[in-house]
Structures are given as structure tokens and as C-alpha cells.
């Protein structure tokens, strides 16, 4: 039986650790933030000062000598994700690496999972409920977007993994991994993949790997899933979902609020209203009853479980109660689609899975 609370060590102290990992770890009673690995603290970004009482290590090798660590969370750049326990998405850079890591976890009898947190977005859970309850009928087209208007690279980003030219950088491994994972959760693996990877920024703002993408997933039943992430979108609200079925459609703008609440409002998990969307962010459900009039109405977003649920499920798995929240095999499927998307864009052709 694992100890309670479990001692958690976080490797990395960037956006993922500060926004998506540590606040949720801190709000789960069965977890104790025990250690952080930060190689180079900065005056404005110092884990030791911001988390007094937590052990600070300067290298992963030093951390792994600490026998008191129960759970390791890897929240570093994408190309370092290969030798982990709970790994930030994307799982690995290649299917080969994913297979090796899965085999190693089985060999050592270790639990392994991936932080595909967008499975717990409130709007995604709302959409999932509509599909599972057949409200929209047979789905014929699915659009999922992560669009922003950012014609210039944000200050400080040119030196980061998200924009540099390196394995695992660029929009496909970053936001694309979320979009692909959600589509696979809803519909399973597609039959074919067509991808377009490109720069929308120009001049000095054009930097590193592609900043925008369109990925098409073709399914056996004729359904088409269109996944888009782009950086030139001057509009007051960004489209998130547009899903069309035989019985109705669902259109939704705005992203899930959990990230913005932590970053912009300093509202932490567990506080009143956390993860609850304002009514202005609710989607629109349009239904077409047989022999009836088409009806459109706002659909309140479910006040579902937050990203905290991923950690709670993981704790239960560590105590022998159920499966990990995200199976490494499902995360490997995301990497498979990413690899095909890269090949499709390079060859300018549709590829079979």
C-alpha cells in the first residue's frame, strides 16, 4: 500500500509546472508537493522562494537519489519526455520511444500516465455528453480549434522550446497534441490523415517550426474531423468547437477557463467558482426534430470535474484502485497521428493509419 499523502516531485518550473501541475497537486489532500527540480532559478522565477519548505534540486539525477519520492511529474520541454512516470503531453516524440517507455514500465511494474488534461475541459465534457447521449445524432463533421491572434512572437518565447526549431517544438506537438487527443477520445483512431503545417507569421515574427496547422482526420463512416490551431485571428471571440450531426449542431466559442483563472485572476483550484464558465462563454445547441422547426438555444457548460480529477484518479491507481487516468497506449496513439501528420505535410499527400 502506498503512503498517504504521496510525496510528489515536479521536474521543471515553467508554465506547465506553475499553472497546470502545482496548483492542482496542492489542492489534492492525498498528495504532498515534496520537491521541485529547477536547474537555473531567476530573480522573477525562483521555485525555492515561491515554495518554501519544498525541497529544491538542481538536477534530475540528484532528485532520483531521494528515496522519499513517490511520484515524479515531468513538466519539461517536449523533447525531454522519455523516462518518466506522469509526463506532460506530448508523451514522447516518436511512437518508437513511446513503445520503449511502455515496455519499460511493464518490465519494472511502474504506473505510467500522461497529462492530457484537456480531457477535463468543461466544454469538452459538455460536448462528450451530447455525443454520448445521441443529442446530435450521427456526427458528420467535427471542428476543433485552438486559435489566437498573436502576429508577433511573445516576449521571451524566442528562446523557448515552443517556437524554436527542434524536435518536438512547434504547434503540432504543443496545441495539436491536445486537439488530436480529444478527437481520438471521442471517435477513436481515424482511417487516414491529411495535414498542413505552415507559418502564418511573417518577417521577423516568422520563427522556428510551423506556428499554425490544419489536420484532417478521415473516418471509415465518412466523418471528417478538422483540427486547427493558428496565430492570425483578429476577432473578438475565437471558435472552439463546431460539430454537425444529423439531429443537430453544437457551436462553442472561448477556451476552458481553468488556465486563465489561475494565470489572470490568481484564482486557484478549490476556490469558489473555479472552473465554472460564465454564461457569456456558453455554447449554442441547435436541434432539428423530425417534422419540426429548427431550435437554437444556449447550452450551459457542465460544471464538471477540473484537472484535479486527473490527479485524484492517479492517486487511486497508485493505491491499487482502478486504472491510470490516461493510458500510455492512448497517448502513444496521439504520437502516431502526429508522426503521420508531419509526413503528410512534407509529402503533400493523405496517408493511411
Automatic annotation (TrEMBL):
GO terms for molecular function: nucleotide binding; oxidoreductase activity. InterPro entries: Gfo/Idh/MocA-like_OxRdtase_N (IPR000683), Gfo/Idh/MocA_oxidoreduct (IPR051317), GFO_IDH_MocA-like_dom (IPR055170), NAD(P)-bd_dom_sf (IPR036291). Residues 6-116 form the Gfo/Idh/MocA-like oxidoreductase N-terminal domain. Keywords: Oxidoreductase. It comes from the Eukaryota. Residues 124-251 form the GFO/IDH/MocA-like oxidoreductase domain. Belongs to the Gfo/Idh/MocA family. This is NAD binding Rossmann fold oxidoreductase. It comes from Rhinocladiella mackenziei CBS 650.93.
Amino acid at each position: 500500500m502506498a503512503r498517504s499523502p504521496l510525496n510528489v516531485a515536479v521536474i521543471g518550473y515553467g508554465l506547465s509546472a506553475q499553472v497546470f501541475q502545482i496548483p492542482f497537486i496542492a489542492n489534492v489532500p492525498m498528495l504532498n508537493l515534496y520537491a521541485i527540480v529547477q536547474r537555473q532559478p531567476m530573480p522573477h522565477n525562483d521555485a525555492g522562494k515561491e515554495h518554501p519548505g519544498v525541497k529544491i534540486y538542481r538536477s534530475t539525477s540528484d532528485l532520483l537519489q531521494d528515496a522519499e519520492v513517490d511520484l515524479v511529474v515531468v513538466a519539461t520541454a517536449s523533447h525531454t519526455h522519455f523516462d518518466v512516470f506522469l509526463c506532460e503531453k506530448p508523451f514522447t516524440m516518436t511512437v518508437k520511444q513511446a513503445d520503449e517507455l511502455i515496455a519499460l514500465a511493464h518490465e519494472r511494474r511502474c504506473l505510467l500516465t500522461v497529462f492530457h488534461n484537456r480531457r477535463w475541459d468543461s466544454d469538452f465534457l459538455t460536448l462528450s455528453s451530447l455525443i454520448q447521449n445521441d443529442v446530435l445524432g450521427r456526427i458528420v463533421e467535427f471542428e476543433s480549434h485552438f486559435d489566437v491572434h498573436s502576429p508577433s512572437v511573445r516576449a521571451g518565447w524566442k528562446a523557448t522550446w515552443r517556437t524554436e526549431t527542434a524536435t518536438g517544438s512547434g504547434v503540432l506537438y504543443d496545441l495539436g497534441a491536445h486537439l488530436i487527443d480529444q478527437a481520438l477520445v471521442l471517435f477513436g483512431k481515424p482511417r487516414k490523415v491529411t495535414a498542413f503545417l505552415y507559418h502564418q507569421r511573417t518577417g521577423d515574427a516568422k520563427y522556428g517550426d510551423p506556428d499554425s496547422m490544419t489536420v484532417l482526420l478521415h473516418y471509415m463512416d465518412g466523418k471528417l474531423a478538422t483540427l486547427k490551431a493558428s496565430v492570425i485571428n483578429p476577432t473578438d471571440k475565437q471558435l472552439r468547437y463546431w460539430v454537425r450531426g444529423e439531429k443537430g449542431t453544437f457551436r462553442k466559442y472561448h477556451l476552458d477557463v481553468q488556465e486563465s483563472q489561475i494565470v489572470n485572476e490568481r484564482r486557484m483550484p478549490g476556490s469558489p467558482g473555479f472552473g465554472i464558465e460564465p454564461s457569456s462563454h456558453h455554447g449554442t445547441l441547435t436541434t432539428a426534430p423530425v417534422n419540426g422547426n429548427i431550435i437554437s438555444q444556449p447550452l450551459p457548460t457542465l460544471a464538471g470535474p477540473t484537472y484535479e480529477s486527473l490527479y485524484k484518479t492517479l492517486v487511486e491507481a497508485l493505491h491499487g484502485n482502478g486504472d491510470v487516468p490516461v493510458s500510455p497506449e492512448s497517448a502513444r496513439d496521439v504520437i502516431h497521428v502526429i508522426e503521420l501528420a508531419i509526413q503528410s505535410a512534407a509529402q503533400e499527400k493523405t496517408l493511411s493509419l
